[in-house]
Amino acid sequence: MSGDIEKGIVTIPLKWGRRTTRCIMGTVVVIIMLAVFFLCLKIFPFSVLSWTYIFLAIELPYLFYLYTILNPRGKRSIQLGTIRFIMVAGIAFAFFIGHLL
Fold first, then answer.
1. CB under 8 Å to 15, separation ≥6 — which residues?
2. Distance separating alpha carbons of residues 56 and 49, to the nearest angstrom
3. What digits encode the pLDDT tens for the residues 8-27?
4. 26 near 60, Cβ under 8 Å?
5. Are 99 and 47 in contact (CB under 8 A)?
6. Where are the domains of the chain?
7. Which residue has the higher pLDDT, 40 or 70?
8. Residues 34 and 54 sit within 8 Å (Cβ to Cβ)
9. Strand partners, 12
10. What pLDDT does 9 receive?
11. For the segment 30-69, what is each residue's pLDDT rounded down to a tens digit?
12. Quick one: residue 71, left, alpha or beta (phi over 0 = left, psi -120 to 50 = alpha)?
């Protein structure tokens, strides 16, 4: 396999390992999803502030998880469940703000 995932359509290099590659792929998918929702489909009639909250709620936990994986010396003091909880709470807060504005 020579360090690549060959099961999908696109061959993805595994320079930093499977978890980091999945985190990067998840980040790219989230960015594409938000771009499609916000620019093309206009599904949710929220304000720009609400979309900023939604973007941060989805993106920041992924970036923090990526940092904890790439940091070889630091301890992983936060678990994946906590990161998911932060993400869900942030999305709920963003939708709440979206309905207020």
1. 3, 21
2. 11
3. 545 556 666 666 677 777 77
4. no
5. no
6. 18-100
7. 70
8. yes
9. 5
10. 47
11. 777 777 766 655 666 667 776 777 777 777 776 776 666 6
12. beta
Is the overall model pTM greater than 0.90, yes or no?
no
Distance CA 52, CA 94 (A): 8
Contacts of 12 (CB under 8 A, 6+ apart): 4, 5, 21, 25
DSSP code for 4 = E
47 φ/ψ angles, rounded to the nearest 5 degrees: -80, 170
- Cα–Cα nearest to 62, from 99, 91, 35, 93: 91
Do the bridges between strand 12-13 and strand 4-5 make them parallel or antiparallel, or are there none, so unpaired?
antiparallel
How far, in whole angstroms, is CA 46 from its chain's centroid? Answer: 20
